[in-house]
Design brief:
The structure holds 3 protein chains of 3 kinds.
Chain A lengths: L5 H29 L5 H23 L7 H24 L9
Helix pairs in contact in A: 1-2
Chain B lengths: L16 H29 L7 H4 L2 H26 L3 H31 L8 H28 L4 H5 L1 H31 L1
Helix pairs in contact in B: 1-5, 1-7, 3-4, 3-7, 4-5, 5-7
Chain C lengths: L28 H6 L4 H31 L24 H36 L8 H20 L18 H4 L4 H29 L12 H32 L11 E2 L2 E2 L8 H35 L6 H14 L15 H29 L8 H18 L2 H4 L1 H7 L3 H31 L1 E2 L2 H27 L22 H29 L1 E2 L10 H4 L41
Antiparallel strand pairs in C: 1-2, 3-4
The chains are: A mainly alpha, B mainly alpha, C mainly alpha.
């Protein structure tokens, strides 16, 4: 990034504004859907999907993860693996005991 | 004594120290919030009753705050781009807006908290409110941390722009990475707490 | 490094260091020795502080051992100093015993052993080994030490508040930790948040330093094994600690904000239903706690393995057997340590599927440990071994860690764990890993690294007395624990099991263990005397007294330069352990020597 030319930056700026627009639209969409009061099951899937898209846009464009160095990807990949362990395993150990509500 | 690669990148890794450092820091932050998200899931699936966020919380206010925080992220990245294009005046304007927007976020958050506490519904009231106050509180602390860093870079920190412009631009990029992460956490917190 | 200069007045501590120093930057005492940003000074600060905490944590245990050996009898002399609130008439109260137990564990792990190896040795040695002028972020390094220091102070002061320190064990399981009325637990949580922040700052710094500041030619497979150990350890600290920080925040909310994250509905305390919203999950704490605390075990051990590897290679005068295998094993070990944590929780009724999963991962993680231990044993084969003090401690590490590891296997299998869970067997097991294993490696590191820091060697005769005495005494403490544990004697019993019929046949071991513990303490006096005497009176040595090959010995003097470590930036041409290379006049081939 550091050696990017000023013209490139101007192009980036355009992208940033487009991403900004998309994020705004998606925020409106996710709030609008919530007013439909869908069943919890569908609501979770839709809200998480929208949030994931929004989060990815921020990470890819604002945080420049669309073109970063390998080392950063490696350390983030490691983090994602442990993130998943932490999300899934405690839940899995409780499956015998808890009642999943919908 | 000079520490190598504070400004220039190390050829074989392609990174400066600060850039690598902030990503490692963010990795650790990911694990911090992962633990809280995991706790949320475990508490929710194990509960006998769990309210919909929109029944307990003020969605319009949070919607407004989401817009504010996303905007502050955009102004942050624009501040960095302005420095890249050598437009220092614009940089001041954009970073100033980021700081201003973060204060707006906190003020709105204050009124939300105030509303709950006024009717005696603090974190002790229910597990839902407990996790709501804890997660938004911790996120709020991150906002305050960001305000401190950004204000330094907006005020006294700008001295570096005259002496070491590349290093200063890198600092803005690093502060930006942190700020976008705070935004990113909110993007997940908002639907999780308010909409589901 | 910022040059904080004071206009023409001599540093107050200048007399304290007599060796010829480059006085190019006159710094005031406070910036040079207190708020220093030099990794070497910070390393020494960490080492001294951690050693003091180790001594303090040991003293707590020495007190507890009196109660275990002679239950409900007044403690002579010291008993009267403990205060009426803790030990009326010199007889220790159960609450005070619990405080000592909880704080012994906390202080040993979080304030003693880990800071000594990572903050102390790692900080001092690692930048020198990779040819770096300092850590990548010197200011963060300083902050890391001071945040650790504050955490330690918070922990210590908790003894003096009304009701005393935390008393729910170092694991702080809720609901007990939350419903205990005193504020010790709150202090514990605040202290832990400081300690976690400190290790976060440190680990980030370590990783960046190792990746970014390696000398020219020092690729990853030329790194000394100690650096690898620090590298993997730092990742564990970076990624495993934050969940405990989150858990700490949640428990703090339970303590001060009246939430019920860990309190189930309808909890009855003292025959009264607790007035809490309820709906919490006590097991959530255990998950988040062990998500850290299992990797934490490897945070203790990996640097120990690193130290021992360096010393074994150096004192066998031959390359480590299977350097690459060691590296792969330690990476795999670090990774696997994140997926075994619930083997601490077999008794929580997690269901057979998940308990099979964790039994499997636990058996898998023993493989890299065995690989590392085997490689180190094989490294001894055919070497002309020098039996100096550091080598003796390093050699003792191998069987001691072996016993600790092997006795862990029955605990990693649910059927046998049901019998052994929460007995003295567990205490014996992890103490073999941590005390005669890890702490012996730390001792080895101190004897080995002492000439690097002071330019003098510690006395070898006193060192050997320290070693032999400690080795015998420490086994006298921990081996009987296996016997008691197999008989089913529970841990954390205030009277050591006097009231239980099944404990009677093995109760007599309690006195033996206590005498062993006090003997062990007596032998540490030899070490303390040796340590302080050798700073001034030890035999002065050259810059490379052990004829080692790695950069910290070959590229800079002992003690190293104050600023920037190296006069000229070293360049590396070969692997770390080129000992006894055929056809050379010396039996060591420094990494930075061209040919």
């Amino acid at each position: 990034m550091s050696d990017a030319h000023a013209d490139d930056i101007r192009k980036h700026v355009k992208t940033y504004l487009m991403v900004f627009g998309t994020l705004m639209v998606l925020t409106v969409v996710t709030v609008a859907i919530s007013y439909l009061h869908l069943a919890v099951h569908e609501a979770i899937i839709i809200a998480l999907a929208v949030a994931t898209v929004k989060g990815s846009l921020v990470a890819l464009y604002f945080m420049h993860l669309n073109h970063e160095r390998k080392l950063i990807y490696y350390s983030l990949a490691l983090t994602v693996v442990f993130f998943l362990f932490l999300m899934i395993i405690p839940l899995a150990t409780n499956l015998d005991r808890i009642r999943i509500r919908y | 004594m000079e520490i190598p690669y504070t400004v220039e990148v190390r050829p074989d890794t392609g990174l400066s120290n600060g850039k690598l450092g902030v990503w490692l820091f963010l990795s650790s932050e990911v694990m911090l919030f992962a633990a809280l998200f995991s706790s949320y899931i475990l508490l929710r699936v194990g509960s006998t009753e769990w309210p919909h966020g929109y029944q307990e919380l003020n969605v319009p206010m949070a919607f407004f705050n989401t817009i504010v925080l996303i905007s502050s992220s955009v102004t942050m990245v624009m501040a960095w781009a302005s420095l890249k294009m050598n437009q220092f005046g614009k940089f001041k304007l954009y970073l100033g807006s980021t700081i201003l927007l973060s204060f707006v976020f906190l003020v709105v958050k204050y009124f939300e908290y105030e509303h709950h506490l006024a009717v005696g519904e603090g974190p002790w009231h229910s597990t839902f409110l407990a996790i709501y106050f804890t997660m938004t509180g911790l996120h709020g602390l991150h906002i305050i941390g960001g305000i401190i860093v950004n204000s330094y870079l907006w005020g006294p920190g700008t001295k570096m722009w005259k002496t070491e412009p590349v290093r200063f631009t890198n600092r803005i990029e690093i502060a930006g990475l942190y700020w976008h992460f705070v935004d990113l956490v909110w993007i997940f917190l908002f639907p999780m707490l308010y909409l589901l | 490094m910022e040059n904080v200069t004071t206009a023409g007045h001599a540093p107050a501590g200048a007399h304290a260091h007599g060796h010829a120093h480059l006085h190019d930057h006159e710094q005031s005492f406070i910036w040079k020795y207190v708020f220093s940003q030099d990794h070497k000074v910070i390393g020494i600060q960490y080492t001294i502080t951690a050693l003091l905490f180790l001594l303090f944590g040991f003293a707590l245990m020495a007190l507890m051992r009196y109660q275990l050996a002679f239950p409900m009898q007044p403690i002579p002399v010291i008993g009267s100093l403990l205060g009426q609130a803790n030990a009326p008439g010199g007889i220790m109260l159960p609450e005070f015993y619990n405080q000592l137990g909880a704080m012994h564990g906390t202080i040993m792990v979080f304030l003693g052993v880990v800071p000594l190896a990572v903050g102390g040795f790692g900080n001092y040695v690692m930048p020198l080994q990779i040819g770096a002028p300092d850590m990548a972020f010197p200011k963060l390094n300083m902050a890391s030490y001071w945040v650790y220091f504050i955490g330690g102070v918070v922990m210590l002061t908790s003894f003096f508040i009304p009701g005393g320190a935390a008393q729910s064990g170092w694991t702080s399981y809720p609901p007990l930790s939350v419903i205990t009325a005193t504020d010790g637990q709150t202090m514990w949580l605040i202290g832990m948040i400081f300690l976690i922040t400190s290790s976060l700052l440190g680990s980030m710094n370590f990783i960046v330093t190792i990746i970014q500041l390696r000398a020219k030619g020092l690729n990853f497979f030329r790194l000394p094994f100690f650096v690898w150990a620090q590298f993997v350890t730092s990742f564990l600290l970076l990624l495993a600690f934050p969940p405990l920080e989150a858990a700490g925040v949640l428990q703090l909310m339970d303590k001060v904000a009246g939430t019920s994250f860990f309190l189930p509905s309808g909890l009855v305390v003292g025959n009264k239903v607790m007035e809490r919203s309820g709906g919490g999950n006590p097991l959530l704490w255990q998950h988040l706690f062990w998500f850290l605390a299992h990797p934490e075990v490897y945070v203790l051990i990996l640097p120990a393995m690193g130290i021992v590897s360096e010393i074994i290679a150096n004192n066998t005068r031959k390359p480590l057997w299977g350097y690459r295998v060691l590296v792969y094993a330690i990476i795999f070990l670090g990774f696997m340590s994140f997926v075994v944590w619930a083997h601490h929780m077999f008794m929580t009724g997690m269901g057979t599927t998940m308990s099979s999963f964790f039994q499997t991962t636990t058996m898998i993680i023993s493989i890299p440990s065995v690989i590392i231990l085997s490689a180190l044993f094989l490294s001894l084969y055919g070497g002309s071994i020098r039996y100096n003090t550091p080598m003796l401690f390093a050699l003792a590490f191998l069987p001691m860690f072996g016993i600790g590891g092997l006795t862990g296997l029955p605990l990693g299998l649910a059927p046998s764990d049901i019998h052994l869970h929460d007995t003295y067997y567990v205490i014996g097991h992890f103490h073999y890993v941590v005390a005669p294993g890890t702490i012996f490696a730390r001792c080895a590191g101190i004897y080995y690294g002492f000439p690097k820091v002071t330019g003098r060697r510690m006395n070898d005769v006193l060192g050997k007395i320290h070693f032999v005495g400690s080795f015998i005494a420490i086994n006298g403490i921990f081996f009987p624990m296996f016997i008691q544990g197999l008989h089913g004697v529970n841990r954390r019993l205030y009277d050591g099991g006097v009231q239980y019929a099944h404990a009677q046949p093995v109760l007599h071991w309690n006195q033996f263990m206590s005498y062993s513990a006090w003997t062990l303490m007596a032998f540490q006096l030899v070490f303390i005397v040796n340590f302080f005497w050798s700073i001034k009176g030890g035999k002065a040595v050259g810059s490379n007294p052990w004829n080692a090959t790695t950069l910290e010995w070959t590229a800079t003097s002992s003690p190293p330069l104050a600023h920037g470590n190296f006069e000229t930036q070293p360049e590396v041409f070969r692997g770390p352990y080129e000992y006894s290379v055929p056809g050379r006049s010396t039996d060591y081939f420094p990494q930075n020597q061209r040919d």
